[in-house]
Amino acid sequence: MVALTINAMKWICFFAMLAAVTATAEPLVFQSAERQTALLELYTSEGCSSCPPAEKWLSKLKDAPGLWNEFVPVAFHVDYWNNLGWRDKLSNEQFSDRQRSYAQAWSAENIYTPEFVLNGREWGDWLGLRGAPSASENKVGVLRVNSDSGKHWQVNFNPVEKNGATGYEATVAVLVSGLNSDVTAGENSGRVLNHDFAALSLVTCPLISQTNGFQGTVVTDANSKDIAGRRALAVWVTHSGELKPLQATGGWLSQPMKMILPANQSTQQ
Predict the structure, then answer these.
(1) Which of 15, 89, 136, 198 is found 20 to 30 A from 113 (Cα to Cα)?
(2) pLDDT band at 261 (very low <50, low <70, confident <90, very high)
(3) How far is CA 178 from the centre of its chain?
């Protein structure tokens, strides 16, 4: 029999403990109450000099007692600033299109950053507000999401109003928090920007009527964009084909980590 070194035995014990922890990991479950949980969206960009105060305000909500239960925050980094000297690594054309869809629904002529949207409506009351927006008293139904793997999510929405619904859709966003980005060009050149609740991906799926509510399955990738940081999940449900959220829920997927995004190169040569 080959004798094991002390280091080899330590590694064997480590992997055994890791396997035990993995095997006994509990499913992830996020659930709203019947009362409406607000969806708070911020449209922002690292290329916009007016955006850091808005993101700083949003970051303060990490310590708010109503986080995930009374409100779900999501920061969408748009891409239409990317041709002005600095490319935002968190930006996505899909997020810009979502903001344009809101503008079209409101008959607004322009889109801009920073822009907050609260429960599907343009919202400017964050200026001077110390805490989160006030919770709604409307009872709309219970939204529940669960996963055994952290990738395949079962979504169930049980609305209070059982009649008259034309159908529902669920939208799921993977978020990242705890990022510092060293900006070396554009309007924020020389600044270190802090990011929380930044969307990495956005997926929408239809919910099918079942005996115990409306159900669907969404597949997400929590490691998308290869950006390290603390992950969270934001989920909201709407009427089919609409933007205005009816109910929302979410929560943290990992422990806090402070990460630094590497400096991008200027888009101008």
Answers:
(1) 136
(2) low
(3) 13
Query: How far apart, in Å, are the Cα atoms of 29 and each of 145, 170, 205, 233, 235?
Result: 6, 16, 19, 11, 12
Number of domains in the chain: 1
Burial 92-130 (b: 16+ CB within 10 A, else e): beebbebbeebeeeeeeeebebbbbbbbbeebeebeeee
Check residue 140 and give its pLDDT.
96
Q: Quote the mean pLDDT of the chain.
A: 86
Query: How far apart are the C-alpha atoms of 237 and 41, rounded to whole Å?
Result: 14
Give the CATH number, domain containing residue 119: 2.60.40.10
| 204 lies in some domain | yes
Q: How far is CA 245 from the centre of its chain?
A: 14
**C-beta neighbour count of 248 within 10 angstroms:** 27
Mean pLDDT of 62-71: 94
Given a cut of 60, whether residue 7 has pLDDT beyond it is no
Instruction: List the domain range (segments joined by +) for residue 163.
Output: 27-261
- Nearby residues of 257 by Cβ (< 8 Å), 6 or more positions away: 178, 228, 229, 230
